[in-house]
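[Discussion] Sanity-checking designs against the backbone

I'm trying to build intuition for which residues belong where. Below is a structure token string of 337 positions. I'd appreciate it if someone posts a full sequence so I can compare it with mine line by line.
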């Protein structure tokens, strides 16, 4: 179920037992947890009826003790296990899953997989899947996020239309970078509101205050170099410069993505499965999808040569007083000739 379905269950007081909160949008995950707690426990009831747990040697023992405990002068006893993925070896246990089955109706436990990394093949995951107790926290649809962003501005006394809200979302790279979430967006809204004071949000204000996300520029630059498009590659590099990215940082970002492309290429040569590739690379779903779509068009020898050139560039950037911008441009010329 998605978080909206779960919130409806909360409003109807239909929540009991064990749930797995899973996804990359931690803002929505935290707000949904707050709504659950606020619905069942007031501030005076939380000391005895709310347990907030995380990884420890006694985690399983603490979970069992809390889920069998009846609430004290409250409707529900709520237990929260944060960063469940870090404790998955202990949690993936038949005895614990058996205890979850026997929980009293007055008890709720929420396991939070904030990194969205618990594998679907584990019996722990399958337990929640079987009971339809997995609550998914994916990124909001664009139309809902635009409305939310405009509303946040209005709450802070700033007039903001849907067009300006959408421009801010795109500038942050919300849908192209999994590290950008609604916490990031809320922070930028507050920063802009503080900058404007009272008045109307404009596109030019966003451009002046908010730094543009560069991940798509990096992908486009590498792709242009691969296709021997010198002008296009230089144009993407100029965008990085206009966004105040230091040359050492830019070279690192390029190197990182070339290395990942090379690793993907080696995986393809070794005929590794999609699961094996994801486990090896340990990158966000967006990055994996993006890099996988590009990898097939790259030649192994080209990637190896490019990576070695970038290693040499990195050493030079750290040990020379020469113009770093010109050094990177020279590398682009060399790789696209």
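Best answer:
Here's mine. Compare freely.
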């Amino acid at each position: 179920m998605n978080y909206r379905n779960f919130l409806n269950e909360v409003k109807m007081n239909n929540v009991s037992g064990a749930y797995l909160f899973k996804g990359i949008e931690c803002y929505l995950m935290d707000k949904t947890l707050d709504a659950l707690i606020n619905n069942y426990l007031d501030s005076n009831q939380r000391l005895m009826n709310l347990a907030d747990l995380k990884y420890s040697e006694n985690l399983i023992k603490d979970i069992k003790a809390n889920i069998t405990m009846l609430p004290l002068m409250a409707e529900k006893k709520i237990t929260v296990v944060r960063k469940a993925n870090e404790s998955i070896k202990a949690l993936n246990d038949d005895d614990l899953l058996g205890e979850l089955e026997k929980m009293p109706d007055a008890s709720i436990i929420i396991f939070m997989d904030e990194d969205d990394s618990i594998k679907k093949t584990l019996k722990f995951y399958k337990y929640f899947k079987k009971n339809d107790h997995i609550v998914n926290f994916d990124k909001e649809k664009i139309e809902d996020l635009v409305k939310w962003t405009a509303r946040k501005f209005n709450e802070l006394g700033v007039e903001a239309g849907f067009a300006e809200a959408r421009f801010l979302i795109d500038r942050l790279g919300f849908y192209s970078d999994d590290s950008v979430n609604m916490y990031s967006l809320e922070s930028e809204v507050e920063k802009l509101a503080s900058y404007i004071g009272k008045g109307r949000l404009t596109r030019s204000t966003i451009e002046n205050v908010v730094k543009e996300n560069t991940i798509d520029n990096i992908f486009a630059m590498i792709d242009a170099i691969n296709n021997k498009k010198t002008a296009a590659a230089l144009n993407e590099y100029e965008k990085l410069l206009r966004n105040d990215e230091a040359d050492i940082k830019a070279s690192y970002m390029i190197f990182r993505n070339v290395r990942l492309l090379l690793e993907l290429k080696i995986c393809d040569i070794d005929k590794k499965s999609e699961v094996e590739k994801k486990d090896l690379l340990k990158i966000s779903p967006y990055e994996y999808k993006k890099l996988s779509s590009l990898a097939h068009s790259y030649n192994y020898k080209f990637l190896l040569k490019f990576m070695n050139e970038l290693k040499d560039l990195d050493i030079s950037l750290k040990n020379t007083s020469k113009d770093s911008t010109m050094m990177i441009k020279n590398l682009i010329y060399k790789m696209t000739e």
